Amino acid sequence: MRSAHPERVFFFLSAGWGPVVRTLPIIHRLADRGIASAVAIGGDIGAKIRAAGCDVIELRLPASDAPADEVRNWWSPYHYLAFHNVDSLFDQVNAYRKVISDGHPAVVVTDINPVAALAARALRVPHITISQSVFLPQRRTDSRRFTIPSALPAIEKVLARYGTDRIDSAVHLELGEVTLVPSIPELDPLQDAPPSVRYVGPILGNQLVPLHTSPERPPAASGGPKIFVYPGRPHDGVGPSGQALLNVALSALRDIKATATIATGGFEFEIPEYAGDQVEIVPWRVISPAYKPDLIIHHGGHGACLTALTAGIPSVIVPTHAEREYNASHLAAMGCGDFVAADQIDVPRVRHAIESVLNTPAYAGTCTQWSETIAARAYGGADLAARLIVEMIETHSAGTRRNL
C-alpha cells in the first residue's frame, strides 16, 4: 500500500473495527491512484493493520481527565469534549497538530474524531470528515436521548487560541470541507444538509480486515437456520457492552435449534457455557454468497447494520448504547429486523426477537429488496470517496500554485 507519490492522506479514526472496515477500501482506491495513506487508531487494532501492510501513525495522546463516573451515560465522542478540562483538551489537540504538522499530509480525514477535527481546523489544512447522521447537526430526530451537554465553550477556547473561526455548535466539527456519509438516506436520515455532505453509499471492507478467517463449517456440522453473532468489543466507553451482549445472545439461543457462529473480532471474550457443536467461535467471518446466514445478531454498530442490509440478511439488534439504538431503530423501520431497547435487554426479550424474525418470512424478503435497491442505486462507495479526496488534493494544489 506504500507509494512513491509525494501526496499522502492521514486518516484519524475513532476506536473499533467499524471505522477500519470503511476506511481500508478507500485507502486501497487511493493507492490505485498513486496516493499513499497513513492511519491513526488506538489500541491493538493499529498493530494488526500495520501487520497487514498499512502505514500506522504513531500518536501518543495525553490521558483524558474526563470524569469516569459519567462515561456509562455517554454515547457520542462529543461528551468527552463537554467534560474535558480545557488544558487537557489543548494537550490532546496539540498532539494531533504535531503529527499533522510533521507529516505534511495533503488531506486530513477524520472519522468521528472531534479532537483530530479540532486540530485540522486549527491548522487550516484540507479536511474531509466521515460520519453518520446521528453525529451531524442535520440529523432528523427530536429525541432527548440524542442530546449532549454543550461542548462548545471548550471548543471555542481551543479555536480562539489558534485564531480559527468559530462554529455554530459542537457537532459542526463533524462537517469538513466535504463530509462523507457511508450509508443511505433511509438508514441515516438528514434534513437540509449542505451540498458538501455526500451520501457515498455503504463502504464495507470486511474482507480486508487482517484477522484470520475460518472456512465455513461443513454442512454435516450444522442444524437448523444459520445465525451469525457479532458482539463488537468486549469493553468500550460504556463498559463491558460486548461481553454482556454475547452472554445474553448465547443464553437466548440455548433453546433455539440453530447453528451459531460467533465472530470475536480478534478480541478476548469470556465464553460462557454453550450448546456444544451448535456454536463455533472464530476471529472473523466475511458475509458473502459463500456464507450467508439466515440472521445476524449484533450490537447495532453502523458497519454491522450496513453489512446486514447490503447482504439482504435480517438483524436482531441488542444495542449497547444510544447511538446504536438510533441505528437499530432506523433499520427496524425499514423492515429489516427487530431490536430490544437498551433499557429492556434480557434473555426472554432477545429470544422472542430471534424467534419472531426467523419465523416471519417478510423480514428476509424486505431485506432482499433493500439489498437489490442499494445495488441498483450505484452510489460509488469507496471509489467515490477516493475520487472526492483526490479532487480536494488537486483543488488545494492548484490554489497553492496560484498563490506562489
Summarize the structure.
The chain is α/β, with parallel strands linked by helices and about 400 residues long. Helices cover about 40% and strands about 15% of the residues. α6 links the parallel β5 and β6.
Report what the structure shows:
Helices cover 38% and strands 13% of the residues. It has twelve helices and 13 strands. It has helices at residues 17-32, 44-51, 78-83, 86-103, 114-123, 152-161, 241-253, 302-311, 322-333, 347-358, 361-377, 381-403, and strands at 8-13, 36-40, 55-56, 107-111, 127-130, 178-181, 197-199, 226-230, 259-263, 279-282, 295-298, 315-317, 337-339. A seven-stranded parallel β-sheet has the order 3-2-1-4-5-6-7, with helices on both faces. Strands 10-9-8-11-12-13 form a six-stranded parallel β-sheet, sandwiched between helices. The radius of gyration is 21 Å and the shape is globular.
